[in-house]
Amino acid sequence: xxxxxxxxxxxxxHSDNTVKAKQLRDSLLKNKxxxxxxxxxxxxxxxxxxxxxxxxxxxxxxxxVIEADIDSMVDAEKIAAKGIHAVQLRTxxxxxxxxxxxxxxxxxxxxxxxxxxxxxxxxxLVCPAEFDTGAIKNAMxxxxxxxxxxxxKYPLMFTVCDVLLVNKIDHLSLSDFDIDAMKERxxxxxxxxxxxxxxxxxxxxxxxxxxxxxxxVKQFISL
Amino acid sequence: xxxxxxxxxxxNIALKHAPADKVKKIVAIHxxxxxxxxxxxxxxxxxxxxxxxxxxxxxxxLVIKRIPIRLKCDSCQNEFEIKRNEIHSIExxxxxNKKCSLIAGRDYFIKNMEVI
Lengths: 223, 116
Prior knowledge:
The complex is a heterodimer of chains A (about 220) and B (about 120).
Chain A: E1 5-12, H1 15-31, E2 34-40, H2 46-57, E3 63-69, H3 74-81, E4 85-90, H4 99-107, E5 116-120, E6 137-143, H5 150-153, H6 155-160, E7 163-167, H7 179-189, E8 194-197, H8 206-221
Parallel strand pairs in A: 2-5, 2-6, 3-4, 3-5, 6-7, 7-8
Chain B: H1 3-17, E1 26-34, H2 41-51, E2 61-67, E3 69-73, E4 79-82, E5 100-104, E6 108-115
Parallel strand pairs in B: 1-2
Antiparallel strand pairs in B: 1-6, 3-4, 3-5
């Protein structure tokens, strides 16, 4: 019988993606473009939140959007209808975006023309959390109808995000969503996360978030 | 979900290392995967069996070692381990501070492989 040998490999499984994500971040810094990766479940209000946020930001900074969907153009069409530059990425069944897919999206825009690009990731609280997209900051939306137990079910997503937008707060009175319990659960997982309570439909609270984002972008492009 | 992509990466990395060592067959691949990952061992193996057909790695067993979640206290710098179900009530085992940073538990690492 042939002898079994051991070969040392010592390689990160995601090493290709990690390298690509770092290259992307270097290029973003060079081009002074702030990339925000926005994640959430399907239906949490990513597209509506992007539209409302960009409406408030107005022309203070130059903005664009990369839309990722498994197989449709619906979101990009909604964004483009408002006169905002949108690129649609079809992931062809993939449940998340990785750095090379984001790179393709960015190649379709001239980075020097944008101060802020928002990626609308695939609606999913599991897989997108595992893949570095090359973004400067990660944000997620948790909407009130989804329930206050989501930090218990999807801890990694809450751990990797810099910002949590609690959306659809206009539904709070109709629901048993315990916002204080939810916040405590999130802060236990990630004490550094910034939390904004918003309703993208009524516009409540969106300004505070949009102002914070504008400040972050301005700070980044002045680096 | 993303098990397929992860499995494909594992296969590609293993096959990349094979020619240099004149490998005839890959028997087992040893992986370190963090406790925080949602990957299921059984699914990774099933995808691997499917993807590795007609390659040097066909029939190889994936041996997965789960790496514990390790945290470092932002205040006293103490390093400690927790279980996955304890992640919702993190506090430093030494000073009780709740602000801690994750230092391990998200690992996705191929350690080595057994070959003939």
